């Protein structure tokens, strides 16, 4: 009896192993079909499942490695094609917007230059309180609150609001002589606080979405001071925001394309040598 039971156990185990191998092959065939139908995400999930469920089916696992490389090749080719189709469109948008901006870069101190709305260049806005904006070559936008007056207010941030009570604020930038700097000239004080990227993002979006409204700007963090955004400044900030989005998209797609090209070259090399 004991010998009979042992024999049945061994037979059952052998049958089970055989079934496992057939199941793994069936799952592999399914993943292959998904790949051929360009269902790349589903194919990758199926391959991951095979690796998890059948860790001892070495022949099948070897084939999943080859199939995964083919899936990734197709993914990267798709990414490159997508970027190639959109980049000319985004570049045309950039050229159309660019005519309203000037490019400024101090080659001695700056590695990345900035685009400034033509009417917001510093030389055209001396001795006034206003909110200026700009965007660098990478698509990173900034706001800057400029104060000019007889006495310092020592502000560190701004709050923008409209009549219905809705508002947005920038981050607070402590005085550091860089992003927050002050100087006196002929008895007058100038203060400039710059809010880069996410530090001013909420205020930028608020202004862009309320360009037709009368926008109040409160200089905060020091002595109270208030101005209302001029129409030209609202237009400059809104246009700069649109420019920043296009620049950011172009930079992102160029990076994605470059990354995919490098990955694609590696995968094709590995596929050719195996």
Structural overview:
The chain has 274 residues and is an alpha+beta fold. It has two domains: 2-94, no CATH class; 103-250. Helix content is 52%, strand content 20%. It is built from five helices and ten strands. Strands 1-2-3-4-8-7 form a six-stranded antiparallel beta sheet, with helices on one face. The chain has a four-stranded antiparallel beta sheet with strand order 6-5-9-10, covered by helices on one side. Strand 9 and strand 10 form a beta hairpin. Helix 3 (58-98) packs antiparallel against helix 5 and helix 4 crosses helix 5. The two termini are 51 Å apart. Residues 1-17 have low confidence and may be disordered.
């Amino acid at each position: 009896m004991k010998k009979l039971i042992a024999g049945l156990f061994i037979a059952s185990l052998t049958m089970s192993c055989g079934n496992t191998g057939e199941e793994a092959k069936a799952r592999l065939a399914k993943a292959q079909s998904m790949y051929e139908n360009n269902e790349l995400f589903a194919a990758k999930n199926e391959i991951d499942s095979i690796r998890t469920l059948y860790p001892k089916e070495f022949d099948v696992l070897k084939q999943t490695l080859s199939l995964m490389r083919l899936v990734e090749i197709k993914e990267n080719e798709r990414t490159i094609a997508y970027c190639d189709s959109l980049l000319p469109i985004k570049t045309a948008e950039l050229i159309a917007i660019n005519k309203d901006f000037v490019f400024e870069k101090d080659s001695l101190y700056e590695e990345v230059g900035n685009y400034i709305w033509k009417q917001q260049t510093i030389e055209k806005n001396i001795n006034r309180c206003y909110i200026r904006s700009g965007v660098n070559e990478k698509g990173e936008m900034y706001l800057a609150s400029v104060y000019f007056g007889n006495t310092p207010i020592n502000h560190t941030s701004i709050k923008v609001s409209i009549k219905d009570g809705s508002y947005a604020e920038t981050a607070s930038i402590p005085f550091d002589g860089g992003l927050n700097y002050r100087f006196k000239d002929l008895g007058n004080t100038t203060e400039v606080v710059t809010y880069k990227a996410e530090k001013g993002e909420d205020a930028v979006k608020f202004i862009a979405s309320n360009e037709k409204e009368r926008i109040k700007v409160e200089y905060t963090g020091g002595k109270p001071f208030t101005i209302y955004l001029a129409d030209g400044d609202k237009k400059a900030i809104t246009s700069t925001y649109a420019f920043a989005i296009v620049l950011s998209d172009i930079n992102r797609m160029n990076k994605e394309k470059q990354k995919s090209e490098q990955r694609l070259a590696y995968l094709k090399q590995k596929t050719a040598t195996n």
